[in-house]
Amino acid sequence: VGYFEGIWCSDKSAEHRQYDFELASDDIITQKSLRFSTISVPSVSNYEDVIILNGLVEAVEDDILFLRLSDDVLMLNDSPDSDFAQYVGRYVQVRVSEIKLYDTGIY
After folding, report:
1. Res 58 pLDDT > 70
2. CA 40, 44, 50 angle in degrees (round to 5)?
3. Of 20, 23, 26, 73, which has the highest C-beta tally within 10 A?
4. Which helix (H) or strand (E) holds 88?
C-alpha cells in the first residue's frame, strides 16, 4: 500500500493495465538507511526523491535482508560490516534511492 515511482526494467513497454511485478533495488542497505518503525503495516512511499519501504524483516542471510511487504518479500543487499540480526522479526523503515520494476509475465 502506498505510492512510489520506479524504473521499468522489462523488455516490453509498460501499458495501462494491472501488472504483477517484482521489486528490486541496487542500493546497499546500511545502518544509516534503516531504522525501527513505529508502524506495523507494510507500505511504500516516496518523499523528496527517497523511497521509504516499511516492512517486516523476516531474515538476514548472506548479506541479504529479506523484507516482507504484505504478500511479497523484497531481497535487499546489506552492508557486510553491519549487524542486522537485531531487526529480524521487527518492522523497519528502509530508505532507498530507486526501485526497479520487473514484469513477471503474470497478468
Report:
1. yes
2. 120
3. 23
4. none
Quick one: which of 37, 53, 52 has its CA closest to 91? 37
**Buried b / exposed e across 47-64, counting CB within 10 Å, b at 16+?**
eeeebbbbbbbebbeeee
**Separation CA 78–CA 81 (nearest Å):** 9
| Residue 75: CB atoms within 10 Å | 15
Supply the DSSP symbol for 105: E
- Supply the Cα-derived Rg of the chain in whole angstroms: 14
In the block, residue with C-alpha cell 544509516: 32
Instruction: Please answer whether residues 74 and 23 qualify as being in contact, where contact means their C-beta atoms are separated by less than 8 angstroms.
Output: yes
Polymer length of the chain: 107
